[in-house]
TrEMBL record:
InterPro entries: DUF659, RNaseH-like_sf. SUPFAM superfamilies: Ribonuclease H-like (SSF53098). This is DUF659 domain-containing protein. It comes from the Eukaryota. The lineage of its organism: Eukaryota, Viridiplantae, Streptophyta, Embryophyta, Tracheophyta. Residues 1-76 form the DUF659 domain. PANTHER family: OS05G0256350 PROTEIN, OSJNBA0013A04.12 PROTEIN.
Length: 258
């Protein structure tokens, strides 16, 4: 049983030294993680944040308006190096295309382009029409509004430079606010994006542990406290809940709380 195998590895380290385990989002790992939290009262389990974000980007990429745009972009070609995660690659490709759109437009109207045999093929004409299509570029911009804030969070979750736990909750809050702001004139599209956001992030990730980590991150917490005291209070509650789970002695709890 998967939970037994994971518990054996925890025992090798020592249960008292293990606070948090992370797995991918497979149903078997979810079941094992929840079972381990029952067996080891102080333990926290969460699905991998990077994997969660990758699946969220996959969900968003399946939205009809975005899916059509991504398929059109793939006909132009992959102009970026492979991303860390495969579903993020589609949105990074769109960002690269958007960055180079002027050059691409100049290319397909140039004599050099029309001198190539590819330009006269059905595929070449299709690529040219896509690049010269304003509706296509408008759709690219919508895709970027929905995806870029999440890609920033993904870099934090998947990076090695700094620990992700104290940063990721703030990054996801910023991402959600940015998406709401950038898609406010597309309410139906915004509703669909936020539905996937809530399903993948709000409903699947363990918020208490990340909230406690953010509460203990002075570089983020004090600025947040000045801006949003209600959220700061919510983070303090999360910290208390984590502490009560990890520390059972009342006297130690009081010392930590002070």
């Amino acid at each position: 049983m998967l939970a037994d195998l994971l518990e054996k590895q925890i025992d090798k380290v020592g249960k008292e030294h293990v606070v948090h385990i992370v797995t991918d989002n497979g149903a078997n790992f979810k079941a094992a993680g929840r079972l381990l939290m029952e067996r080891i009262p102080h333990l926290f389990w969460t699905p991998c944040a990077a994997h969660c974000l990758d699946l969220l980007l996959e969900d968003i990429g399946k939205i009809k308006e975005f899916h059509t745009c991504i398929n059109m972009a793939q006909k132009i070609g992959d102009l970026v190096r492979p991303a860390v995660t495969r579903f993020a690659t589609s949105f990074l490709t769109l960002a690269s295309l958007h960055k180079n759109r002027s050059g691409l437009r100049n290319l397909v109207v140039s004599d050099e382009w029309h001198a190539t045999s590819f330009s006269t093929t059905q595929e070449g004409r299709r690529v040219e029409n896509i690049i010269l299509s304003m509706p296509f570029w408008n759709k690219v911009e919508l895709c970027l509004r929905a995806s870029q804030p999440l890609l920033v969070a993904l870099r934090i979750a998947d990076g090695d430079e700094t620990p992700a736990a104290p940063e990721i909750m703030a990054a996801m809050d910023v991402a959600k606010a940015a998406i709401k702001d950038s898609l406010q004139r597309k309410p139906d599209l915004l509703k669909e994006v936020l539905k996937y956001y809530d399903n993948r992030w709000e409903n699947q990730m363990e918020q208490q542990l990340y909230g406690a980590a953010l509460y203990l991150n002075p570089s983020k917490f004090f600025a947040l406290k000045e801006k949003d005291r209600r959220q700061a209070g919510r983070l303090r509650i999360m910290f208390n809940q984590v502490m009560w789970k990890m520390v059972t002695d009342d006297e130690e709890q009081n010392k930590i709380s002070k």
